[in-house]
Amino acid sequence: MKSLQKICHDAERYFQKGSRLERWYPIYEAMDSFLFGSSKTTSLAPHVRDSMDLKRIMVTVILALLPCVLMAMWNTGYQANSALLAMGLSEPAGWRGLVMSQIGCDPNNLLSNFSHGALYFLPVYIVTMLVGSIWEAVFNIVRGHEFSEAFLVTSLLFALTLPPSIPLWQVAAGISFGVIFAKEAFGGVGRNFMNPALAARAFIFFAYPAQMSGDMIWTGVDGMTSATALSQFASATPGAAIDSISITWLQSFLGTVPGSMGETSALACLFGAFILLLTGIASWRIMLSMLLGGLICSTLFWLLGSAANPMYAIPPHWHLVLGGFAFGLVFMATDPVSAAHTPMGQWMFGLFIGGLAILIRVANPAYPEGVMLAILLGNVFAPLFDYCVIQANIKRRRLRHG
Fold this sequence. Notes:
By secondary structure, this protein is an all-alpha fold. It has 17 helices and no strands. It is 62% helix and 0% strand.
């Protein structure tokens, strides 16, 4: 390893400013940093000594996402294998059938579920990484910027929010939009005003709604319909919503239900939240305030009730395990770049997102999931929250000091 490190460091002079390969320095720096870490140190005061840098932050977030990744592969395979069993088929169509014919499609088999789910999740993630990395490389080479580990998190978040049946070309289109128009157009890493992964998903949702909504997209098996818990609530009998659905609260909490690949399990998100809060990477204020905002708004709707809208009858504790609420609360709303930064601003930011997500979900049953739009709108208002807090602090200090 030391010999390889010496070779890489000796090669650095060919990529430094003024050398013939200067334009390709971001590619060299990305490889060197990925393999050996950054050797850069500060030369001027102040000297902040801390073991946490951007690379370690991103690695920690990826570790926090691993439970969701594992659940994405297992549950995607479980839903597909269960659908095949219900249809009386022994294997899926196409190239996945060639692979699964060697393993078997048994929903009670752990290896079968993981293997089948990986055949859906991994192609989506690989396309996301390849296409997104190409765009990152293009912009970094043109601007002379270094590669950032932040895209590793963006790509994983984006892949986890997609249904298993999405065409790969739409995955490429979505991540291209997210990287170009939600991040690089504003200057790159640390300058995006909204979450790039959510912006990419929103683009696909509104550009290709047939592949992002409805009951045909959640199992990956052609010809099989499988409604999510939210869509079952939206089409339930008013006044008897809980009795009208075939999914229990525990199933929704564990994540053994149809949905976007990595968003179904609130339990997996709890593991991720524990890691992010323990390491201090995510803001507990945003998590708690979004939780409170969602509970307050859902309780109001539940108490009001409605003779026409079955979504009013969803108890508050159900909302926490439905759709992408838990995933958005833990991983999306806490994005340190696009969220509010002042402590009071973070409380306002979280309350706004939590309440708005439930408002969209309940008051508009034609769109029974409001977390994505709520977080994106929260990103837009985050600077305003911080501005109001800062101005209030300035005014208070002026009054205090006369």
